[in-house]
Each structure stands twice: as C-alpha cells, then as structure tokens.
Design brief:
This protein is 46% helix and 19% strand. It is of the alpha/beta class. It has two domains: 154 residues, Rossmann fold, CATH 3.40.50; 215 residues, Rossmann fold, CATH 3.40.50. The beta subunit is responsible for the synthesis of L-tryptophan from indole and L-serine.
C-alpha cells in the first residue's frame, strides 16, 4: 500500500504486487508530462480539431421562464466528439500512453460512452483497442457497442457477477496484470489506485476551466454548479477550478433509482449512504453489506450504476465542500422530457439526474441567480431505454416489426 494520492481518509493505492510496476510507471509518466508545454500543446490541438472544444454554455431561457425561478444554463459537453465528456480523458491518457511506448489500450465501460471515446481515440492515434463491458450493459447500450466495433475495437462481453460496470473493471484488471508491458489500462472515471483519480481530474478539468471563462464573459451570478455523479469523472472535472473557493455551491447528484427507501439505487453519499471500503485498488465509500460484500445497484442510467464513488468526491462530500442530492429514475426521465420539450436538447440519462436537481433548485431561487448544469453526455445512446419508457406500446410494436423484418431478410 502507498499513501500517495490520499484525499483525507480516502484514495491511496492498494494493488496486488503484480500491478505495482505498471502503476508506478504510469505515475512517473503522468507526473513527468503533466506540465510539459509540448504535451499540453498537443492535447489542445487534438481538443480543438478532434473533440471540437470549447463546448458551448447554453442559456436554457425557455425552461427558465417556464419554471419561473433561477436562470438555468447548460454546459453542452454532449456536443464533444463521440457525444460525451469521456473523450477528454481518453485523449489525455492515450497521448500519455503513446509517450510511454504502449501499443495497446484496454478499457471498461458501463454506459458505453467511455468505450466509444476510447475506441475513437485509439482509431485516431493508431492503438489496438479492447473494451470490457458487462452483458447487461451491452444489452441496454447496444448502439454504443456498434460504434466501438466500427472504430475497430474488440468488445469483450463480461458475464460474471451482476454483469455491469464493476464486473467489467475486474476483467480489465486481469487483462492488465497479464499484459502491462505493451498495454495501458485507460480508466474512464476518477477512481482506482493513484494516479488514476488525479489523472482523470487533470484531463477533465478542461470542462471547469472553460465554464469559469464563460461565466466571467457573461458576468453570471452563479449560485451552483450541478453535475451527476457515478464514479465522478464529469463532476470532478467540472468542479475542479472552484474547489478551493467557497463559491459557487457544488452539487453532485446520485442515482436514487427506484427510491432510496427501496434499496434499488446507487447512492453512496445520500440516504443511508455507503460504507468505507477498499475495492478495486482505492479506498472510498461503497454500497456494501455488513460483511463488506458489494451490493447490487440499480439505476436507469448505466453510467451511474456503480457501487463506489471517486475518493476525492467522497472526501469533499464529507468535508462539506460538495453537496450531494439524488434523483430517481422517474425524475431523470421527467428532466429528459423537460429539456427536450422546452430547449430542443436531449440529455443522456446520467446527465438528466443533474437536470432534475437543477429544475427542483431553480424554483427555490430568485431570477437573478444562475445555475449551470453539466450535460455530460447527450441522449442518443439511451434511445432504446428512453423510448421504451416514454413512448409506450408503440415503441415496442416498432421494435417487434423491425425484428420480424430482419428475420424475414435472413
């Protein structure tokens, strides 16, 4: 165990002996290139030309008028290439891996956006790419599997455990243990052993830096920044430049699933909350039973359906700098409908949890205040879930007709 990368009582590096060498190699490379001007210039060039940065800050004027409270703004991270913030970190780590002489990249994915981003970056930079994904997530995020494979990635189904993100992480760790000589493990969330939480925060902080500049340019009176929290990559990057200040309020929104009282959720910081534990190489708060075994989680959004939370977020939550709230599946779907109806924007189901909190909070604030929601991804990937929930029988009838047509063509 190492004490490096500790955030209060959380974080650190707890890895098996076989992974000690690649983790130390990665830490040395990250620290060596983090402030290098050539590395930063290369990142910025790809960020502009490949990702499409900066992403806009959109004033949700119609929805704000409809609500009648604070003015809601949306950081349109879903307009980044591949449809989510995940591409920022994928680019940063891939550029670092190239400097380390790696030729192969592996990743795991839940909602699929990290997998798509990693596959796209690997195609652009010429890496061999393998993505581990639980079979439950493959079923509910099938469009993203198609895109990953089109980019040339090999998507490996994981059928162990709950067949979701945590099980995919375990398989990726096994792969890395056997192949670290030529392989970089590109973790997509701000968790895992040090230096991953720091590294993901560094590459995602571009979201917060752009937001700070856009706030200043518009002279906004911002009450709060609001982001969804699964592992926490979009929220820690969004909040990064503001953590050392006392303002604005920073609000992370977890998945309350079917309701905190039902036990079918993924809320580690709200409700009865998570317990301290050391899982998958880091210490944080996890949903576990009395014996320390990881509990099953539930969320309509695959990206929030994870039992742990990034260690810095857990620390900042305990310290009071970040407030935590939660939104149910139903509230997230209602937020998807509201932003689509009044703003012509389709939130990813993950981001819609933050959107739901913004709608609730705006009603309690005066009109001269502003709230900024990070739309960390757009909702194209959730079509089969959102349409199934919102369109009713007509969507299922459409799918049945399509399946019947496909069978008839064989």
């Amino acid at each position: 165990m190492s004490t490096k990368g500790l955030y209060g009582n959380f974080g650190g590096r707890y890895v098996a002996e076989i992974l000690r060498k690649p983790v130390l190699e990665l830490e040395e490379a990250f620290e060596g290139w983090k402030d290098d001007s050539d590395f930063k210039a290369e990142f910025d060039r790809y960020a502009n030309e490949f990702i499409g940065r900066p992403t806009p800050l959109m004033y949700a004027d119609n929805l704000s008028r409809q609500i009648g409270g604070a003015q809601i703004y949306v950081k349109m991270e879903g307009l980044a290439h591949t449809g989510a913030h995940k591409i920022n970190n994928a680019l940063g780590q891939a550029l670092l891996a190239r400097r380390m002489g790696k030729t192969r990249i592996i990743a795991e994915t839940g909602a699929g956006q990290h997998g798509v981003a990693t596959a796209a970056v690997c195609a652009k930079l010429g890496f061999d790419c393998t993505v581990y994904m639980g079979t439950v997530d493959i079923r509910r995020q099938r469009p993203n599997v198609f895109w990953m494979e089109l980019f040339g990635a090999r998507v490996v189904p994981v059928a162990s455990g709950a067949r979701t993100l945590k099980d995919a992480v375990n398989e990726a760790l096994r792969d890395w243990s056997a192949n670290f000589t030529d392989t970089h493990y590109l973790i997509g969330s701000a968790l895992g052993p040090h230096p991953y939480p720091a590294m993901v925060k560094e590459y995602q902080s571009v979201i917060g830096r752009e937001t700070a500049l856009q706030m200043s340019e518009r002279d906004l009176n911002v009450e709060a920044l609001i982001a969804c929290v699964g592992g926490g990559s979009n929220s820690i990057g969004f909040f990064a430049p503001f953590i050392e200040s006392s303002e604005p309020r920073l609000i992370g929104v977890e998945a309350a699933g079917l309701g905190l009282e039902t036990g079918a959720h993924a809320a580690r910081m709200t409700g009865s909350g998570g317990r301290e534990g050391i899982i998958q190489g880091y210490k944080s708060l996890f949903l576990t039973d009395n014996n320390g075994q990881v509990l099953s989680t539930h969320s309509i959004s695959a990206g929030l359906d994870y039992p742990g939370i990034g260690p810095e977020l857990a620390h900042l939550g305990k310290a009071g700098r970040i407030e935590f709230a939660s939104a149910t599946d139903t509230e997230a779907l209602e937020a998807v409908k509201a932003f689509a109806r009044y703003e012509g924007v389709i939130f990813a189901l993950e981001s819609a949890h933050a959107g739901a909190e913004a709608i609730k909070l705006a009603t309690k604030l005066p009109k001269d205040k502003a709230l900024i929601v990070n739309m960390s991804g757009r909702g194209d990937k959730d079509l089969f879930i959102s349409a199934g929930a919102l369109a009713g029988p007509s969507w299922k009838e459409f799918l049945a007709r399509e399946a019947e047509g496909e069978a008839g063509d064989e």
